[in-house]
Design brief:
Elements (H helix, E strand, L loop, with lengths): L5 H6 L11 H12 L20 H12 L23 E2 L2 E2 L2 H6 L17 E5 L4 E5 L1
Antiparallel strand pairs: 1-2, 3-4
Length: 135
């Protein structure tokens, strides 16, 4: 593996790629490398796997598997039903909101109006989508 010692190669055998000391460019590259047919990795919202150790949640997922429910590694991927850990909209330790990721970068645009307390809500429903328009 590119001049790595055999012990280093053994440590990395579970990974497709290892990105070392590449800063933010490495983070972008890492997101692209793990993107698949069901999910992208280049959007503005930072997403991390919910892989924090939690014995209660592990027992929850295990009980679902014992009851013969599917275990999903990615609810936005091929197996979207079942038990598993959810992704979180967190980047660099901070929760990512739609406001932070979509609105903040464009708030100086002259064609953008943000209503802080809209007076009327118009629900729009059709067979393809359901949205709420703020007026």
């Amino acid at each position: 593996m590119f001049g790595m010692s055999s012990s280093s190669a053994k440590l990395s055998s579970g990974y497709d790629f290892i990105i070392v000391d590449a800063g933010s460019a490495g983070a972008v590259l890492a997101k692209r490398l793990r993107a698949d047919a069901y999910r992208g990795g280049d959007g503005p919202v930072g997403v991390i796997r919910g892989d924090y150790p939690n014995p209660i949640f592990d027992a929850y997922v295990e009980s679902g598997a014992e009851a013969r429910f599917p275990v999903s590694e990615d609810f936005n991927g091929h197996q979207f039903k079942g038990f598993g850990r959810f992704d979180m909209n967190i980047w660099k330790g901070m929760r990512q909101s739609s406001s932070e990721t979509h609105l903040k970068p464009v708030r100086a645009r002259t064609n953008l109006t943000v209503a802080h307390q809209p007076n009327e809500y118009l629900p729009v429903d059709d067979l393809m989508r359901s949205v709420l328009i703020y007026q």
